[in-house]
């Protein structure tokens, strides 16, 4: 297997089926091999059972694409669900991906980003993150209120962490397995700001991350409250700033360099200054 794709789900039975089918059809024709792990994030009865039934039905049609689902007993947050899926990665797998279950990111865009990192054989990049940037010829449809909240949040993230990201919260990310294993024991955020912590740790540890503009269309049924959850997200960024400090970098999109061979093992506090600082703190 070349790529393991985690789809975090919290009460997504109305939106998951169409996207899961579309993604399976894309992956069958892809030039890489992939497996999907659907992670139910403590949806509770009867939603969790319904999610598993959906997975089983679609899996019967795509047995080589959909793997065993993961069912969390308690809600861990989106990041917790993503990491629970990623932690099932088998030996020999090269890439990890997560994509939201709602279908806002088209299945074709998911395949495109995985394919781009898969064919980056010179390891110019260690991770590719989807980004909702309006460009000529691209499709980007979202409520204006969400757009402005997103821009304010991105500015806040850039000021406090220094990562210079345009869209840290986009629900499509692809990362090399060795990069994730290198930092995973220091990933503490499992809810709204897990993307920011993931990005910050990757950059502070010298990995190369690039934002890639994608097509994106808002789908009805979001469980995010702009007012309540925005406050939680801002508080989460403050936690990350206190714990990890600032990345001395102007932008996510910079000149690529080869990945260091030392990154093939998990982060050790005695071998990397960022890890040592986290251990000492």
Commentary on this structure:
There is one protein chain. The protein has 281 residues and is an alpha/beta fold. The chain is 40% helix and 15% strand. It has one domain (3-280): Spore Coat Polysaccharide Biosynthesis Protein SpsA, Chain A (Alpha-Beta Complex), CATH 3.90.550. The strands form two sheets. The protein has a seven-stranded mixed beta sheet, with helices on both faces. Strands 6-9 form a two-stranded parallel sheet. Strand 2, helix 2 (47-61) and strand 3 (70-72) form a beta-alpha-beta unit. The longest helix is centred in the C-terminal third of the chain and has 19 residues, at 226-244. The chain is globular, with a radius of gyration of 18 Å. The termini are far apart. Mean pLDDT is 86; it is low at 250-273.
